[in-house]
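Anyone? Bumping this.
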Amino acid sequence: MRFQIKTGKPEKQRCKVAVVPVFDSGVLGAVGKSIDKLSGKSISAVLKAGDISGKQGEMLLLTETGDLPASRILLVGVGKRDDFDRIEYRKIIRAVAMKLAGKPYTDALLYLAADGVANAGGYRAARIAAETWVHQSYKFALPGAKKAPAPALKTVNIFVDAKHAKAAKQGIRDGAGVGTGMNFMRDLGNTPSNYCTPSYLVKQARSLARSEKKLTTQVLNEADMKKLGMGSLLSVTAGSAEPAKFIIMQYQGAAKSQRPVVIVGKGITFDTGGISLKPPAAMDEMKYDMSGAASAFGVMRAVIEIGLKINLTVLVPTCENMPSSTATKPGDIVTSMSGQTIEILNTDAEGRLILCDALTYAQRFNPAAVIDVATLTGACVIALGKYRMGLMANSDELAKQLLDAGENADDLAWRLPLDKHYDNQLKSNFADMANIGGRDAGTITAGCFLARFTKDVDWAHLDIAGVAYQGGARKGSTGRPVQLLVEYLLNR
Ligand code: BES
Ligand code: MN
Ligand code: ZN
């Protein structure tokens, strides 16, 4: 799929299908009116006849286009003009992409943004169109399976006023990059754990590095991790036959002297809970417990597509959490790479155990900021549901940058506190800390645990347990929080 920006006279554009918005009560915007004129009033005719009224979601395909150099007109109801905000705009782009998916048209021209989207200038309108279109076109296939035949639609053109053309071009580049990154995340997330193992993630990292000169990949095996003293990470993989891996991806898009942003993604390719075994209901969804890692891969992919001039390092500690005779048992005490000891009271609180060693390792990159991303706690789903992710940070500035990025990218987060009071819940009689803090404030105590390993850097933690995937009938990875993270990087 290719995206292009078109400017000029709206009624002079040659295309297979022109997508024109109709506002509530059959009102046309300025662009719609000029198209209507050259189409021999074919739009006015169907409005008058009541075939379409402009209610959100309505669609009508016109084959009579008069002197308009468009073969078809797809009228799209977009509702009340004042309500036509970014969220509604996204919905409409999705619906149009779906509508055109099976059609033989090789190109489309969208006039949806030209008549105005609230809170979206030329850049944002183009970016949302490209991002949403790419996201909507996603289809899952098992690794190695035959790819579905390519759709007829090859080019999506987006019409904007000439004064917005430059910004809009940037918008489609960033939007297509973000969409591609999100789909990469979704592929990794949706791929079941019998395919998507730590070694499979290593393969993905290597092939990403082959595609881009600025990216180098390095992988630590269990012996390397042992040498580094990553006793906490290794305790999680103790019960699994699949070897644990530690993936390091370094993208150098700016001068070497520029400190990198480090993103750390939780890569539990399946979380059974270990000896503290999870109940069976919906346990299949624990294949998504590597969504933090998948989002980090997605961000890297987007950064490559966009060609961002930044330095980005992605760290992925990855393993399975399995019960077996060699598995870590409740009460076991392990020593983390930082030297701090941890009493493992619940083997299902494994995410923080792999992240803490990765966070210690992250500090050797002299990072400008460290952001970890993890499906860390069920408590976060209880607290914030599936709309906003949890955000915790030891830096107000970094927290604000990430919250703002989420607002601007429609990928929302909400900050939770990390007061000493909560940290006290991690006290252990036998080690420097326990790996759980009791039932109260489970998301926050998990954050407090990680904070103990990030004292010397600006650090933020995103708990994406509620937002990274959907369950039930619409089961699947969402691609979040790739949008928020890329937005943050774009703003740097
Ligand atoms: N991967 C889970 C968190 C999770 C739960 C993600 C539900 C998505 C949906 C994590 O490893 C876990 O099991 N956390 C425990 C922590 C508890 C033992 C302190 C949890 O949330 O129950
Ligand atoms: Mn767990
Ligand atoms: Zn987990």
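Late reply, but here is one note on the structure posted above: The mean pLDDT is 97.
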